[in-house]
Amino acid sequence: MNVLYLNGPVQNGVFTIAERPGKAAGIRAAEALNALLGAVPAPHLWNTVTLAGDLRHRDAADRDTVGRQEREERAIAAKYAPGPSPAGGVLTDTTPVVAALALEMTERLLREGILAAMPTSVHLCARCGHMTGTVAHACRACGHQGSRPHIRRLLVWDRPPGTPVLARDDFHAHRARPPGHLLTIAQNVPERLILSRTRDHGISLAPLGLDGLVLDPRAGVHIAVLAAAVRHGAGQPVMTVTESAAANVAAYGAPFRRHNGTRLRYALHGRIPYDDTATLQRLCEVHRVSPALRELFLAWFLPVCSLHIRAGITAAQLPGLLKFWRRAHLARPDIPGSDVLAELRRRVAAGDMRWVMDVRTLSRAIPEYPVTHGSAKEPEGAS
After folding, report:
1. How far apart are the C-alpha atoms of 125 and 133, rounded to whole Å?
2. Of 47, 49, 147, 358, which one has the fewest beta carbons inside 10 Å?
């Protein structure tokens, strides 16, 4: 089916994967599913076009000697433990291949009349000039309360009346109940969406005549997924994403889900209670779980399981899941049957995640070694 799983939005903030492993749940889920499909390792995708990143760079003592791009690269490198890097590498939303695809797609959408660059009424911060939006409110860049109305050319998408920004077919989930709540709230966006932003860092829209503006990062995350898919020759990229993240980015990515026969879909995953470290530690001690088995449970099984339990895994579910996991691990065959593996791959490619709670199938899916990258202990510096 030429399916490739790729992670959705992970902002390059001040944390490590070891410190906040929930941030990497989508990365690890995609990694596990691609391995089951026998696909080549996909890159980890990181989002660097953030206002918080702009502010960190402006406030850094070494801002005159360390450029913004280098700062982002250092921050991403600090997310991972020393040792082997991710097999598929990393890709950001400003990597040249992503920027080139973004400009190509945007230019085509402008020619086709789907997007437009037109004068639009917005508000600018009266102190720093940051674009605060179409209504007056405090500036997120400097905190100033005052703004002034302004008309400038922006990249906009006027959604045709009645056109949904998200539909059931946009989800890669065979025989799973459609996310009704998400479909409803995703529609709660203006008919006109502004797809350009004022940022110090991002995909510049100057080649399209929009000086001083970058592409909205919510569109950029979709284009990064498409760029990775094109690089790997995958016609069906699937973005692993939480429901809340999908609600935030889906509308802005709607014009950027298709390119030359490639179509992006979403695979929803629930949150994992990694922050309940006391419960996890106590469980592993009570059940005498070895370090390797614990790492597989945390970094492989729970991310995969979160694609089935899309509403989110609760702390109360952890004891039952650990017992189930141990049963499956003990039942691992020396050599999995080819028929079972073929059926497992078919279900993974179709987005059917019910196999996760079938002990016989799960036992044949468990990898031999746990994930090793991403366990750096110290958080990155804010500089």
Report:
1. 10
2. 358
